[in-house]
Design goal:
Distance between the termini: 52 Å
Largest sheet: 6 strands, antiparallel
Number of strands: 20
Number of helices: 10
GO cellular component, one term: RQC complex
Shape: elongated
GO biological process, one term: rescue of stalled ribosome
Strand order of the largest sheet: 5-6-7-8-9-10
Keywords: Coiled coil
GO molecular function: ribosomal large subunit binding; tRNA binding
Pfam family, one: NFACT_N
């Protein structure tokens, strides 16, 4: 049900307000009908995905089918005094006066979100506008179902986010001229209260194709729009076409929602990786400082007293004295070697990340462009983007991440202790190969060879996977042990993922993911 249709129902209802409440009936578990004196039954059907509200003169019956309907019958009492719509959105509220009696019932508001698959009916405490405390909700929406908006009994109701659209009830000729270049079928993007059905009906009444812009015929489009405000009914042919368009619109909305989260995550990841490049660049200056201090320590090591926590040495260029903090547990030469090693690590990290910076910036621009196109993209483009993102996702198995070695063997990498244990003790066969970074917590890597030996490129590939998925990630010359699965066992009483092994060999690789 679209905004102008809802406005028509409320406009007809308001002529009879205030109206005496003659009681509630419930034809089924998602329909409530309020019998109003002189009006008939105000029927609220809130079953997704096609909720609707209308007035019926038919005799309706039915007792409450669930706790919400029982609460509605007992708590929402008294005359219906006012009705209001949120702009021309598919949200309206009914104000009830309450009643006095054996048990007094205070005034309440009944809010109906006539919003497709998110349809909901809420009983709110007395108040103005569209906010307030929720006394009871037909559908509880928790954070596990919707992380952006929750609807809980006892919580505070938050209306849909505000938006800016033209009101067709007050649309001027200059407004219509501004829309003349927009296809009539897309006027609903700029004009409030229109959805797929009324958008198609607008094109029919204006004698235009939905994808045709009115141009000089904008007065005809304006006349058609004003007629929709007065009579928002839809012809049978448009109803069928509009239903198809509504289904496409709903599918596009679902795809946009599904695609936005991975695109935003990708964008955040790339921004963080570029931040790593900037931090590594700053580390180069720290590496230069480490080298200067190390050179001074090596030059003056013979004159330094052991066990001191700091010293001051003259700079080589005569610019003054340089204060240097020392580890008193080791010698001056060892302090210098420690600085040299730290400087090398920082320089290696910067060189590695600097090489990736152009690719990261290109990926960031592509991800940002995809995100920017999301809102305006038609269904076909959204489906193509979804297929592209699916193809770009790394292949995963039921247990562990899956890679393929240069020789074509399957390599599985555990993502947690449980998967490590499963790969090593259940998936792996006795002659398969097992890899793990020596002395570092990390993933078990299983290469399924079927008893065949591994060539050196396969060994180095799997070893890099083990190093890159360990605490040694990003380091150089990481020792990685490998052996056959038959030589790996879990000690009695040890937690999942903890093993002992024998007959291992060791290779040294960089702690970065292998290419390809």
């Amino acid at each position: 049900m679209e905004g102008l249709m809802l406005a028509r129902v409320l406009r007809d209802l308001e002529r009879h307000l205030p109206a005496r409440n003659l009681g509630w009936v419930f034809p089924d578990e998602t329909t409530a009908a309020l019998l109003l004196d002189g009006v008939g039954n105000l029927v609220l059907s809130y079953r997704p995905p096609q909720p609707v509200v209308f007035v019926s003169r038919e005799r309706l019956r039915g007792d409450p089918h669930n706790p919400f309907q029982r609460f509605l019958a007992n708590r929402v009492r008294g005359d219906l005094v006012r009705a209001g719509q949120l702009k021309l959105d598919r949200v309206f509220v009914l104000h009830f006066a309450g009643e006095t009696g054996f048990v007094d019932q205070p005034p309440t508001r009944l809010l109906f979100e006539v919003t497709g698959r998110n349809a909901n009916v809420l009983v709110l405490e007395e108040g103005e506008g569209f906010g307030g405390r929720i006394l009871q909700a037909a559908r509880e929406i928790t954070g596990s179902r919707n992380r952006f908006r929750t609807v809980r009994t006892g919580g505070t109701y938050t209306p849909p986010p505000p938006y800016e659209k033209l009101d067709p009830r007050t649309l001027t000729e200059s407004d219509a001229q501004a829309l003349a270049a927009l296809p009539t079928g897309k006027w609903r993007e700029r004009v409030d209260g229109l959805g797929p059905l009324l958008g198609a009906e607008l094109a029919r009444r204006a004698n235009l194709a939905p994808n045709e812009a009115p141009a000089a015929r904008w007065p005809e489009a304006l006349t058609a729009l004003r007629s929709l405000v007065t009579d928002p009914t839809v012809s049978e042919g448009v109803m069928q076409e509009g239903a198809r368009e509504a289904a496409r619109t709903e599918k596009a909305a679902q795809l946009r929602k599904a695609l936005r989260e991975p695109l935003e995550k990708r964008l955040t990841l790339l921004q963080n990786q570029l931040g790593d490049v900037a931090r590594a660049e700053a580390g180069v200056d720290a590496a230069a400082q480490d080298r200067r201090e190390a050179d001074l320590l090596m030059a003056y090591a013979h004159g330094l007293e052991p066990g001191v926590a700091s010293t001051v040495l003259p700079a080589f260029d005569g610019s003054g004295e340089v204060p240097i903090a020392l580890d008193p547990q080791i010698s001056a030469v060892q302090n210098a070697e420690k600085r040299y090693a730290r400087a090398r690590r920082r320089e290696e990290v910067y060189e590695r990340l600097q090489g990736r910076e152009p690719a990261l910036r290109a990926e960031l621009a592509e991800a940002q462009e995809r995100l920017d196109r999301l809102d305006a993209a038609p269904l076909e483009d959204l489906e193509a983007l979804a297929a592209t993102l699916q193809a770009e996702r790394p292949e995963k198995s039921a247990y562990g991440m899956r890679f393929t070695t240069p020789g074509g063997f399957e390599a599985l990498v555990g993502r947690n202790n449980k998967e490590n244990a499963t790969l090593t003790h259940r998936i792996g066969r006795s002659l398969d190969y097992w890899f793990h970074a020596q002395g570092y917590p990390g993933s078990h890597v299983l290469v399924r060879t079927g008893g065949r030996d591994l060539a050196l490129p396969d060994l180095l590939y799997a070893a890099q996977l083990a190093a890159a998925h360990s605490k040694a990630r990003g380091s150089s010359n990481v020792p990685v042990d490998y052996t056959r699965i038959k030589n790996v066992w879990r000690p009695k009483g040890a937690p999942a993922g903890q093993v002992h092994y024998t007959d291992q060999k060791t290779v040294f690789v960089d702690g970065t993911l292998p290419e390809g």
